[in-house]
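Archive transcription. Copying these from loose printouts into the bound notebook so they stop getting lost. Printout 1 of 2:
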Amino acid sequence: MYYHQHRSQYVQSSSSHSPILPTPVPIAINNPSRKRKFECLANDAWTQQNADLNAERSKNVHLRQQLDALQHQLHQQSLQLNEMRISRDNYKLQVCSANKGLRRKQQDLDQLKRELVDSETTIKRLRSSLKRRKIERDKYKLIASSLRDQMMEGMEPRRSLIESCKSKDGVERTRNAQILYHQMTKGEHDKMVAHHHENLGLQIPNSIARFMMINKHDKTYKNPLVTIKVNDQHLTLNDIAEKRQIQTGHRVPELVGKLGVFAKMDIPPYTALGRYIGFECTNKEWNEVFDFTNKDAKHSEYLFSFDLDENIGDNHDGSRQITIDPLEGNMDDLLLLYINDIRSNLFDSELSDEDKAHQNCKFVVPKLYGWPTPIVITTKHIKKGKELLLDYGLAFSVLLKQNERWRKLMRSANEQIANNILGDAVLDDYYRL
């Protein structure tokens, strides 16, 4: 009875939730073997409960460690979350600030766009104004240039007053000159060379006749054949003479830097060098077309005139006088045009003995098939390298004086117009003398 009561007490105590086991109560068992068996069972039960208790304690410790780790992790995540919240708030502040700056930039951009539109409108208005001013400037430049040219150079030649065409000999003549040409050459086709107003002797006509024979098929007259032969071949004018720039030390200082004609080989006397050719008209026609025009001064230095009638006198209107204008006839590259005058002083009307000694060429005007034609012919032996020189007569020096006086007047007028009328205006075709 005692054992059972004690056992019930033990079982009740073992089923309790208290973690502390009761101390085993000695049970009065009289049987020793049974007593030992009971003690072993009780010890085993207590040991098992103690082991289970230790396991639960270990499990509890492990769970507490896990709980601490989770709490630490949760704390770290909470700190990170707080940092992220702070970063988010900072980012929101930055975004807000950036949006404010962007709005200000957009406002500035809109202001710049408005200013750009205003500027483009102003530029268009200024361009339109500039275009109108440029048109007005060009108009005034054209007017000023035209007025200046008319005041300083004269007008363009009045070519509409005459009609011209080429004759059968290839020379361009006006209608009146054509009529005179046909009148004088009628019935003269068999007379190659004849005297006109002067007696040319025998050598000059013979030389001119040979010259005409070897050039009978040439209608250009710019580089004719001459009677000088090399290897049984006739040479041309450009083979025996050349155009060259005159160097310092020349006997005529005014000609330095200008062009002259020099012998490329020895040239014998009475050698016909070529015809002085160009546009042919009456002297009256030339004056009507070219007088006081922008071609008057330059063309007049190259003119050659001759009378058709002997002893024509001074009381004539120039209708029976022929004028040859090489420049108007596009004969600029004819070598004969560049033969200089023999005067050491170009403005001196009188020839000195030294001037006469330098002459080695002259003009002769024979009739070729009835028509007077000026020809340049050598008067003496010309050595290689020597300059070819002509006597252009008293009228040439008078003409040079007039042209020089005209150029001085034009320079003065040019300065007056440039300073007082045009001011600082720059003309693209500014007249330079």
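Printout 2 of 2:
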Amino acid sequence: MKTKIDNELKQAMLSGDSVTKETLRSVKAEISKFEKANGNISADDNQVMKILEKLVKSRKESISIYRANNRVDLAEKEEAELAVLVKYVPEKLDEAETTRIVKEAIMNGSTNIGMLMKHISSIPNIDKKLAQEIYKTLV
């Protein structure tokens, strides 16, 4: 994953795509910060994916705040960066699939939200917030 980001950063530099270049530089900075904080160990693909998901979440929150405060210029900048980041993060499961997983977890004995979260934490690409909301409506 890091190699892909490096290659696409080089491509963005050569093509003059400043949004992609700046966004990927910020991704590399976050990865570097993570590696330094963890004793200079190299981040694996799962850790890079978590970093990317954190950055996507941050961009989405910033967009909503900027829109609420009528800062369209800043919101558009964040949306452009979000479009770059989304290319690297796999899509979350849809609501129907998440509902099926939550119902299955309830039938298998997840009697509280903590047990549900423990069960779904091992499932890749599941939207945990959506799963919590579905659980609350079902229980």
